Amino acid sequence: MTDKRTLIIFGATGDLASRLLLPGLGTFLQSGRAVPVQLIGTGRSARSAEQWKDVVTKSFASQDVKGPEVDATLESTTFIQGDPTDPEHLKALLDAADAEPILYFALPPQIASDICEALQGVELPEGTTLAFEKPFGTDVASAEALNKTVLELVPEERVHRTDHFLGRTTVLNIIGLRFANRLFEPIWNADNIEKVDVFYDETLGLENRAQYYDEAGALVDMIQSHLLQILGLVTMDAPAAIDAVEFRSSLARVLRSTRLKGDDPKIASRRAVYTAGTIDGKELPSYQDEDGVDKSRGTETLAEIEVEVDTARWKGVPFTLRSGKALGASRKEVLITFKPVTRLPSGLSGRPKADTLRIVLNPDEIELSVSANGGGNPFEMGQVTLSSSFDDGELTPYGEVLNGIFHDDPLLSIRGDVAERCWEIVEPVVDAWKSGDVPLEEYRAGSRGPADWESSS
């Protein structure tokens, strides 16, 4: 077991910390992979020692975690109020750390950037680690500037640009599916695959997240970060080893080859916003009437882009990435559609559906649908579906991410050049949308989206 670490959470009073980060920490502490952790929360809002401990206790209880490491962290945790951009406050936080500190920025990118600027006036202890939430930066220029600032503070191997999607059981299993069997890898190319779709459609609406979401929208919230990383896992060539250097280099190579369809955001992107409707019997107001939303921004709640991967493996295969809120059905999956056989022998009847591999992201499932004959008429083609569910991992996705951070393993974090590259892919879309070159369509909350989108998905 490695030495004790101190986790300092900026934005500790926010929803992300209590709902995702702290429960993930609890699963890590309970696992056999844990190190002793001193937990320090900080934020501008005041919290008494009892209030803070209650937040941590409830977050841990949500995962029903227990054990000596959990108890030790609960017993020693503390909250220090202050302005995170004040160097004196930062010094106080570091002075309170009794082990190598991990500074976790559970904050929007601009505030995280401001704190890093302030950290330049502070002497950081040896072994300091910095961990950032997505998005990393707000565009290409800010991501480049933040990378420059961060690398003046600590070396790249001590920087974790987290994406909790990479900690999902199913996403991690894509690696095994791709590279550990002879069934899929030989046919994982443009000769055999017709198209690939990555969907993350949610039935949830805004859920009181206007402060963040109205600035980001569906494109930045989901596609720029999570879905491009999943695309990279689906399309990357086999790394020499599943380690941070080889794996992340393979991911970087394929994303450098990824670009918008036709290099034209007007034909490669669509956007829409939900109007008032009903989901599961619950009335939802129009997004633009939600509390905290600035209608003049024209923020989208449904975004779709089509990209191409310009490599020999994938030449000519269309990739669609889509994410939206307040839709009538939850659809969180990678859908690989295979090309039909070149010829169906005479004597076989019917028109079989396309063979598909569906990797469901939440809940964690995999489903292979293939053409087969059988049933009443053995010469009539039909479809057979093989499916399997994955057990929940030992750790939550945030627990997996924290495990990498505490053990100085950046395998599941985003390398600096990849963070910039993801912005480079979507920035032409952002610019085209700001200029009004792509219309902001509408769809009723609880529907499948704008009517003319349904046939394409």
UniProtKB/TrEMBL annotation:
UniProtKB keywords: Carbohydrate metabolism, Glucose metabolism, NADP, Oxidoreductase
Listed pathway(s): Carbohydrate degradation; pentose phosphate pathway; D-ribulose 5-phosphate from D-glucose 6-phosphate (oxidative stage): step 1/3
Domain Glucose-6-phosphate dehydrogenase C-terminal: 177-452
The enzyme's E.C. designation: 1.1.1.49
MF-aspect GO terms: glucose-6-phosphate dehydrogenase activity
Keyword Transferase among UniProt keywords: no
InterPro entries membership: G6P_DH (IPR001282), G6P_DH_C (IPR022675), G6P_DH_NAD-bd (IPR022674), NAD(P)-bd_dom_sf (IPR036291)
Sequence ranges assigned to domain Glucose-6-phosphate dehydrogenase NAD-binding in this UniProt record: 8-173
Secretion signal, residue range per the UniProt entry: none
Protein name: Glucose-6-phosphate dehydrogenase
Organism, as annotated: Curtobacterium subtropicum
